[in-house]
Design goal:
The protein is mainly α and 184 residues long. The protein has two domains: 2-33, no CATH class; 57-181, Glutathione S-transferase Yfyf (Class Pi), Chain A, domain 2, CATH 1.20.1050.10. 58% of the residues lie in helices and 5% in strands. It has six helices and three strands, in the order βββαααααα. β2 and β3 form a beta hairpin. α3 crosses α5 (148-158). The longest helix is centred in the middle third of the chain and has 31 residues, at 57-87. The protein is globular. Homodimer. One of its GO terms (molecular function) is glutathione transferase activity.
Length: 184
């Protein structure tokens, strides 16, 4: 199995990934080019139990719902970062910032009902949204006064070993890039 994360100019053959997106997973004859599908595939294939991605259809629906929400969050971030990184647009619009902050409102509401984003135990939704919020906070920091449950969840999640090992180093570098390209 090979996980490739190519540079923007080297996305691999169009026959493998016509969307030219990252990440991309190749597992023998299977190519997947969506991070949420990669997460669910790897969890199904290698997971020791179903706690991260439940077999129970109702619990799984809650995880899937939050994974789809994560896509919305990603595109709200991308609406700000793509013009900043590639077109020199240093200031997001007020609407873009308001739309992005609305994500914290959504997350606060979810975390008011369960300990984690989709359930009372950590799931793929938490892992996926953690990476997204980790990036988002460089544009709009988490206001612990307005969003105490989000702040508490984020503090817990960022202390997990997988975050420290896999997400934190890239998040720090992304934070530097965001700060150098955006006036927020």
């Amino acid at each position: 199995m090979l996980v490739t994360v190519p540079s923007r100019s080297a996305f691999g053959p169009i026959s493998k990934n016509p969307l030219h997106t990252v990440p991309m997973l190749e597992d023998n004859d299977l190519t997947i080019h969506d991070s949420h599908v990669i997460l669910t595939y790897l969890t199904e294939k290698y997971g020791k139990d179903d706690s991260l991605y439940p077999k129970d259809i109702k619990k799984r629906a809650m995880v899937d719902q939050k994974l789809f929400l994560d896509t919305l969050i990603f595109y709200r971030i991308r609406a700000i970062t793509t013009p900043a990184f590639f077109e020199g647009v240093r200031k997001p619009t007020e609407k873009q910032l308001k739309d992005l902050e609305e994500v914290y409102v959504f997350l606060e509401a979810f975390l008011s009902k369960t300990k984690f984003i989709a359930d009372n135990n950590m799931t793929l939704a938490d892992i996926s949204i953690l990476a997204t919020v980790s990036a988002m906070r460089y544009i709009i920091p988490i206001d612990g006064t307005k969003y105490p449950k989000v702040q508490s969840w984020f503090n817990y999640m960022k202390n997990q070993s997988f975050y420290k090992k896999c997400t934190e180093p890239a998040s720090i570098e992304l934070g530097k890039l965001v700060k150098s390209r955006l006036d927020v």
